[in-house]
């Protein structure tokens, strides 16, 4: 049915006020739900990237997916808000259906009166007196109802609670780790950019490539920066073949003692949320395989 054809003057004043009051309530609840869901989707998306960056250097594709999921959820929240906060309050029929779903009989009769009031006079199959009597009875029934109960506020409460929790967690993160939080924001807002990841643990010295004597034990050292925000008690070194070695912190130093290496191999260092790659290349020690000498004997 076309809602624009309805003229509220055909109804008793209190029924018109009831639809207006209900529409205002629906609009407020929809605004609260839409705002909470919109903010929650974006905050959770950012927090997810922040958490991922603490585990590893989140790849560009994952950053795009996380950011895109947040914006997609925010767009869905906006659409839900538009339907519930803009379209629904404009339709007296849909508002009456809310009353019917909540209160049953009185709401059903309210809906019936609204539908009858929309019928052109030439197509009406009821007398004006009968309609006025029915409208008067419905007016009395509706005046005794708490119409705000017809609006389900639970989705709005859940959205606002979820938003408050995400906002609290984000606020704590920003307060405790402002630089790290800003770095995560930059990587979230522009996920396709090559923004380097900031870590809590900061390495001052660790080689990307090192040479060692073939078959002889190897000592590798990793040094933390003095301004490192985190200083884990242990560091882990893992080879491409699955070998794993652990080193305890000594001041700012971690020292790994590796067995003799015979083939070039890649290693991955993990110190808290900081990661680094290393390639160990064994080399033969210089040795004398042949010695030629020219000796002149005395005559």
Short account of what is shown:
This protein is 50% helix and 17% strand. It is built from 7 helices and 8 strands. Helix 1 (13-55) runs antiparallel to helix 2, helix 1 crosses helix 7 (178-189) and helix 3 runs antiparallel to helix 4.
Secondary-structure map with pairings?
Blueprint: H1 13-55, H2 60-90, H3 92-103, H4 105-117, H5 128-143, H6 154-176, H7 178-189, E1 203-205, E2 209-213, E3 218-224, E4 234-239, E5 244-250, E6 253-258, E7 265-271, E8 274-283
Parallel strand pairs: 2-8
Antiparallel strand pairs: 1-3, 3-6, 4-5, 4-7, 5-6, 7-8
Helix pairs in contact: 1-2, 1-6, 1-7, 3-4, 4-5, 6-7
Organism: marine metagenome
Keywords: Membrane, Transmembrane, Transmembrane helix
Protein name: DUF4175 domain-containing protein
How would you portray this structure in words?
The chain has 299 residues and is an alpha+beta fold. It folds into two domains: 3-169, no CATH class; 203-283, Immunoglobulin-like. The chain is 50% helix and 17% strand. It contains seven helices and eight strands; from the N terminus they run αααααααββββββββ. It has an eight-stranded mixed sheet, with no helix packed on it. Helix 1 runs parallel beside helix 6 (154-176) and helix 3 (92-103) runs antiparallel to helix 4. It is rod-shaped. Mean pLDDT is 81; it is low at 1-9. This is DUF4175 domain-containing protein. Keywords: Membrane, Transmembrane, Transmembrane helix. It comes from marine metagenome.
